[in-house]
Amino acid sequence: MIAEHTNFGIEKVGDDYQYVRYCSFCSPEILNVDCEEFIRRLANDHDWELEKANPVKERIDVEASNRCSGDWFLECYQIQKHEKGGYSVYVTAGNRSAGGSKTVFIPASYFKLSWEEFIDKYLDLATPGSFYVGRTDLERDPRIKEFLGF
Q1: SS3 24
Q2: Quick one: three-class SS letters along 53-121?
Q3: 33-43 burial by CB neighbour count: b if 16+ within 10 A, else e?
């Protein structure tokens, strides 16, 4: 497991089996969720540990074509280079009362592609919901291509 202080499992609770999160610093938490949500939580917890284990050493801001969707606002869209290697995209969005951030790591295999193929794959991976960072946004700033090593 990547997460040092968190593990997941399945336990019998009453007559049913439930997904459980075990943290070294608190009691087990019964997760009343379906399989898909369980896997999403497991991946998110491990992404957090991966981010801490490989800090960002450099970042570049990407200007998005569409920064607003209803009452939500795209606060930050960055491509990041990490100290131990690798790249990720970091997105923060929200409104007056809600919001959040997400980091998505870019697979190393993407960097073996041509720039055009890379952009296609990247946009499938890192599209931030209603906010649109498209091919034009990525190609408009020549620093992005250089930052990513193309």
Answers
A1: coil
A2: HCCEEEEEECCCCECEECCEEEEEEEEEEECCCCEEEEEEEECCCCEEEEEEEECHHHHHCCHHHHHHH
A3: eeeeebeebbe
| Burial zone of 133 (CB within 10 Å; 0-12 exposed, 13-18 middle, 19+ buried) | buried
Distance CA 150, CA 119 (A): 11
Taking only the tens place, the pLDDT of each residue in 25-46 is 778 888 888 888 887 777 777 6
Q: Which residue has the tokens 């968190």?
A: 6
Residue 78 in tokens: 């960055």
What's the confidence (pLDDT) of residue 56? 92
8 A C-beta contact, residue 21 and residue 29 = yes
State the number of CA atoms in the 13 A half-sphere of 46 facing the CB: 11
Q: What is the pLDDT of residues 50-75, one digit of tens each?
A: 667 788 999 999 988 766 667 777 78
